[in-house]
Write the structure tokens for this entry.
Amino acid sequence: MKMVRSHSFDKLLELKREKVMATVHRICAKRGLPLPSINFEGCVEEFEGQLAHYHPDANTICISERQLIIQNFDDLDATMAHEVSHILVQDHSPRFREEEVTSNMAGWKPPGGIVHITEWNKSAIEPNKEREIKPDMIRCNYHFCRKKADLTQCHHCQNYYCEVHLEPYEPKLGFHPDSTSNSGHPCAPFVDYLADKKKAEDKRYAEALGKLVKGKRETVSNDYSYDYAPSFDYSAYTHVISNNEHEPATPKSNRNWLILLVLVVALFLIYLFFIR
């Protein structure tokens, strides 16, 4: 059975569409940004639970009728300030949060009876210094999570995350529909940490390799000498005959005694067996 919508329901949706367009026009006019087109017909790239999204290539903000029904007027102001800030910053970095705060201020419209000064000398009142944005310590800072849980601070980006999204990883370009199922969070300072870690490891490796090569060179120079001279003494094996001529003595003397011994034994045997 098809549900018939009342006239008051359609009128409320029309007022919300006008509210969205007025908020976007007001923020872009005050911040000097190009005015994006607004699509209320739905988008194929929208996933469940997404309040709205921005297409930088077409400069278009998409918000479905379903989200117009769910969100009230204050929610629509915050959502449009968020999406308009994506014109300046595509990711959800700390700089984006600063731009989102500025867009919220630019989109605020005072109620009737309140005087609002639009131009004033800001430098004369506040010193020119960076604004410190305090991280949310109640909800997970990962933009696809935002759940209330026990949070732990990341050592690199100093933001707070739940147990599922605490582990940092290198940021990736582009949007992935299954990003909500991934664990960890994109962390820009984590990239610098990995680069410094690799430089330190390369330096330690180079120092160790240099010490190893130097040690081998010292070992080779100590073990080998090019001024080699044998210290063997041959004088014990020679005796002087005449005119400084040298002749081996020990081998010939032994040979003469051996011949003499063989002759003595032979003569003794002849005498023993034949003459006697």
Summary: The chain has a mean pLDDT of 78. The helical segments are 7-31, 65-70, 73-85, 94-107, 122-125, 188-223, 250-275. The beta strands are 37-39, 53-55, 60-62, 152-153, 160-161, 168-169, 185-186, 238-240, 246-248.
